[in-house]
Each structure stands twice: as C-alpha cells, then as structure tokens.
Amino acid sequence: MSALGLPPIIQGGMGAAVSSWGLAKEVAKCGHLGVVSGTALESVVARRLQDGDTGGHMREALKHFPYPAIADHILEKWFLPEGRNGQPYRPMRRISLNAHTEHDQLVVAANFVEVWLAKQAKNGKVGINFLEKLQTATPAALYGAMLAGVDAVLMGAGIPREIPQIIRDFADGKAGTLSVDSERPSGMDAPTLTFDPQESFGVAPKLERPMFLAIITAEVLASYLARNDVTRPDGFIVEHWKAGGHNAPPRRKVETESGFGPLDEVNFEKMKAVGLPFWLAGGRSTPGSVKEAFALGAQGVQVGTLFALSNDSGLLPKYREQMLDAARKGTLKVRTDHRSSPTGFPFKVVELPGTVGEDAVYKARPRLCDLGYLRNSKLDETGKATYTCAAEPDVAFLKKRGEEKELVGRMCLCNGLLAAVGLGQERPDGYKEAPLLTLGSTTTDVEDMLKTHPQGWSAKEVVDRLLTGVPQSI
Predict the structure, then answer these.
(1) What is the pTM of this model?
(2) Contact 260, 250 (CB under 8 A)
(3) Helices H, strands E: what count in the chain?
(4) What are the extents of the domains in the chain?
(5) What tens digit of pLDDT does each residue of 259-279 get?
(6) Residue 127 to residue 69: CA distance in whole angstroms
(7) Would you call 293 helix, strand, or coil by DSSP?
(8) Which CATH number applies to 9-314+455-466?
(9) Residue 432 phi, psi dihedral angles, 5° rounding
C-alpha cells in the first residue's frame, strides 16, 4: 500500500460505463483500486432503468440512497418494467451553467448508485474518474460519489485546481462551487456553478473525505498544483500519451503518427521532487512496466486497455470480441485523432468496421448534439450564455458564431461512447447510433495477453498478470 493507503494497481476510469460498477467491484475484490467512470452517469442510469433494469441492480442501489423520496421519484419517472420496446430513450435535460434541482438530484443519485454497487465488494477500494472538461457536470456528481463513500476521486483532461477545496467543502456539509471555463468579454469574471446539498435534499451530512488524484502529463503541472494548500491533491497519476481516451495536447506537435514527441516525456527526477505519491499510466500493462514504475519512484500503475477488454467491463461483448479478434489477427489499430473530440483534446479512436472509427460510418451519421456533455459556453456582455459543440449541426454551430474550421472531423463522443456499452440512442427515423471505441495505443500488450488467455480474460487475471514477479510486500 502507498502512503495514501491506496494499492499499487489502479484500474482505469474508461469511457461512459466501460469502467462499470461490475468491473470496479471485481478489481476491488482483488484488493486493488477499482474505478468507475463518472462520465454521463445520469444518462447511463436513466437508460438502464428504461431498459428494464436487468438484474434489478439500479433499483437495489436506489433502496440505499439516503433520500428515499428522491429515489422513488426517479423510479417513477425513468423505470420501465417492460423496457422500451424499440422506442427511443427519453430526452434528458442538458447540463448548463444554470443549476436545476431535479436534474441535480438525478446526477447525485446516479453517481451514488454506481459507486455503491462497486463498493459491495466489501474489501479493496473504489474510486471514480471525472473529466475536468465536463465542469458543469462535476459538482453534483462528485457529491453523489462521496455520499456513497467513494475512496478516491481521479480527474484529468484539464487542470483540476478547485477540486480539492470542493471535496473539503462537501466533507464538511457545505455547498461546493466550481468556476467554469467560459469564453467571455475581457474583464468579466468566470461564471461559477454551485451545488448545495442543503437546497437539493434539505440536509447536508458530513462525509468522509476521499483521496484526490490529479491526472497529469507533465511534472510542471504537478509542481503547480502541489505548491498551494488549496490546489494540492493527495497524489498524481502521470499519464503518458499512449493512454486511451482523451490525451493532453502535445506541447509541440511533431510530424509523427501520434503527433507527440520528446517534449511530452516526463522528467521523473523532477516528478519525485514534487514530493507527492504518484502512479504511472499509459502503456504500463506488462509485468516489466510495473517493475519499471516502482524503479522510477512510482507507487504503482494505472491500467485501462486490458481491463476494458476483460469479460468484466461494461463494453458490449460483441464489440469486445471484435477488438480481440482484430488483435488475434494483428490488425487492431488505434489512432491518435487530434480532430475527433469537440473539446480540442486528442482522442484515441479504434478503427473497426461498423464503428464511428470507420470513415464511412462517421460520414453517414447525421450531425446532432442531443446529450451536450462536451458543449462549450460563451457569455455575452450581459452574462447570457450560448452553448456550442463542434459536433452539432453545421448551421446551428455557425449561427452561434462558431468557426467553420472547427467543424472538420469532429465526432459525437457522447452518443458513440454510450452505444459502445449498449445504451445507444435509437431514433424515430430508424437511425441507431454506432459505437465509438477507444483503447490505449499499445496494442501489442493485448496481443501478448491473448497468448496466455486466447479466449479472453477476467479482471482478476489482469491483476495477476500485472503483479507477476512483483514482491508481495509492495
């Protein structure tokens, strides 16, 4: 165990419900840190309920939600005992700078549900992974995770300077406030979003404070966050650009297949000098790389791809098998796409037939933004907000003074990632959302795992592989 009481293996928080409660629970049962994805959990839970809540897990968790009247209201609104019978999922209010009590209650409950279910492992620890870019989704989601007793909060895709203070505020039963990065006139303060549990639920108990791990890519950012009591996390996950999902932009884009170069490598001596515990992520899924991480001064590793492809992840089995079959043939390809994400961050896209990673499938999708998790906000002189997403319809984006060059190559990550876990929208005109798949770029690790587990593997088998030859005392 590290000085923080966290184990050496941290499971990655991947996609929307790829890192599901089931996967996190299995990793926690092994005595390591299982991590649920905190992305779009209100949509995930509401859609599971509309699909009939197979196994009754959502309803069981809601029985333990501390506010029974809210849980009953959520079930009344979203639960369909017989499922949707081919009907589209119900539309949901999109997150914005304007707080909405009923939506906040759903967000809190959804994050509670996912963490509570994962923690039924009864041993090990459970974390939740958030994207800093999804700022308007964060306060209520973070409170819901803490309400369920989450052990660690992980956040990347930005600079999470205000998260430590919000965690402290929620732990003390106070409201939490987050500044939102909005485009705005010079001299205007950044807008803020506050979640007050007292307003939403009428009571705000004191909560256990989880550990906070900031996901970073450079020692300079670690030094910046660590120098101030307000911004200092408990530790770091140092993520290499080989990691799946969103990556930080390269410091200087170079003419390589990935676009990353020597400036994007971490100086580990400087990282150790920051003085806080850290784990290594991105291309760290072999026993040798785990040993190397310890030698570099890390407390362990965070691994995503092998867990994402395990039988315990939230990926639909047919997509998991499609990727494993490509790996068996040596044709599994993951590209670093600097255009696909509306956030402007590079994103790892798996290239497979029938998925959004295939050019023909991408081009066939009608441009539409109905979930809106990655929208940007822009304030006018009066403080009124306009929301844009570079994956929304061209006409709407340009009408809101978006730049035409920003539209090129953008994908709807929200709908594509939900489709990958079997929660894709089916539209009235018959169009069904295609999945968007993401993995880390070191596909040789998948091929190596298949040599010993040709029919696939469990989360426990991933943990066992990673710890091969690692002293048990670590």
Answers:
(1) 0.95
(2) yes
(3) 18, 14
(4) 9-314+455-466
(5) 888 888 888 999 999 999 999
(6) 27
(7) helix
(8) 3.20.20
(9) -115, 135
